[in-house]
Amino acid sequence: MSQSVIVIGGGVVGTSCAYYLTRAGWNVTVIDRGAIGGGSSAGNCGFVCPSHVLPLTEPGMVGKGLASLFQKNSALKVKFRLDPALWSWMYHFARRCNERDMLEAARGIQPILESSLHLYQQLMKDEALDCEWHERGLFFVYRDRKEFDAYAPTDRLLDEKFHCPAERIEGDAVLEREPALKPGLAGGWYYHEDAHLRPDRLMKAWRANVEASGGTFRENCGFQGFIRKNGSASAVKTTQGELTADAFVMAAGAWTPMLAEGLGCKVPIQPGKGYSITMPRPKICPNVPMIFPETRVAVTPFDSGYRLGSTMEFAGYDETIDPSRLKILRDGAAPYLQEPEAEPVQQTWFGWRPMTYDGLPIIDRAPAINNVMIAAGHNMLGLSMATGTGKLVAEMLNGDEPLIDPKPYRSTRF
Ligand SMILES: Cc1cc2nc3c(=O)[nH]c(=O)nc-3n(C[C@H](O)[C@H](O)[C@H](O)COP(=O)(O)OP(=O)(O)OC[C@H]3O[C@@H](n4cnc5c(N)ncnc54)[C@H](O)[C@@H]3O)c2cc1C
């Protein structure tokens, strides 16, 4: 008889774990306190971006962060409050903002991004998920000449140390790559390898695919704790009663620290709140997904729509939608695009990115309960790392040799 596993959290990470575990012969149930994909996984920007090798902890980030505290309408915002977990997180984050730690994190980020891209390509071939998958690259576009040039050392570093160069495109030549841009921009850096998809469609299609292979999804089924026997978990207590299984995967994104009692490790994850606005495609719609680093706004064209997204706010578990943050998205796209918006707005959304202070996810067994795996803390790249994570979790639970070295993601590192 096949072994059973309960995945706690039905975001993109939990759903990917469910997919690879189902394929490996496990009998899988995913439980979610709310709707599947209702956390950070449906309204995000949809980039599958192996170009994002570097973590946020770059040298100089502390200065940039402090400066933004005094700027009105900065895309980066910290709501200071008496919260020891936030202060400790900020302290450790600040300590890692140096070249050595940044490169160490990047050496852990790159393999899971690369492996995830290949696994997505395989997934689209094998399952033909209806999620508007495209491999059209990612374009970083600048208005200001100085800012455009200032990216050159980062490009060099990415090329030399990670073999991940961008194509430098000067001035109005950006219009050949992307005619929806305005003339008169300084230039852009184009990453050929990146892909994108429509995340809400992915969540729907992937769930249906797992269900068709025998997996089960239970919504409104909140995890409340493990029932333990001799160092293992035998069941979970949930809002729908007790559920037994042979193994468990904790994939609750930004909520994971609240559920981590008894796992035997620290789970320093803070919610990094971001927003998106989804609309129909404008008449002059971009073909290529883009980031405007000067305003920190991202633009994603879908076959069936168009999304502006981003901003980063450390505001705790705040569920409000602040119209001034949405305005930052609109104002941040307007200088670059001929037609930055279209009516009517179909959705305004926020999500909590599960942010660890070292920029790496936790993908490992829980030290204190040997049949519980943790798969959480994917920062700004949970979609981009989801397939690699699901595959790794399935390999570790099966006792197979993992495709990538899991050491950078160990649960005991904090
Ligand atoms: C504006 C924005 C844009 C982004 N753009 C991108 C992008 O382009 N590319 C990219 O790679 N990443 C992007 N991200 C990051 C990405 O969205 C996240 O890293 C990813 O969604 C995290 O997935 P997850 O499955 O770990 O968490 P989630 O999707 O948040 O899922 C966690 C789930 O756990 C459930 N849960 C919580 N508590 C319990 C409980 N007690 N019991 C049961 N279930 C529980 C929640 O309901 C939730 O459904 C973006 C994020 C934001 C906010």
Enumerate the distinct ligands: flavin-adenine dinucleotide
Radius of gyration: 21 Å
Estimated share of beta-strand residues: 25-35%
| Biggest beta-sheet profile | 9 strands, mixed
Shape: globular
Q: What would your notes on this structure say?
A:
- This protein is α/β, with parallel strands linked by helices and 414 residues long.
- The protein has a domain at 53-82 and 134-195 and 270-356: D-Amino Acid Oxidase, Chain A, domain 2 (2-Layer Sandwich).
- 31% of the residues lie in helices and 26% in strands.
- Strands 4, 5, 6, 7, 14, 15, 16, 17 and 18 form a nine-stranded mixed sheet that branches.
- The protein is globular, with a radius of gyration of 21 Å.
- The two termini are 38 Å apart.
- The mean pLDDT is 96.
- The structure holds flavin-adenine dinucleotide.
- Flavin-adenine dinucleotide (FAD) binds at residues 8-14, 31-34, 38-41, 44-47, 222-223, 251-255, 259, 274-276, 309-310, 351, 353-354, 376, 378, 380-384.
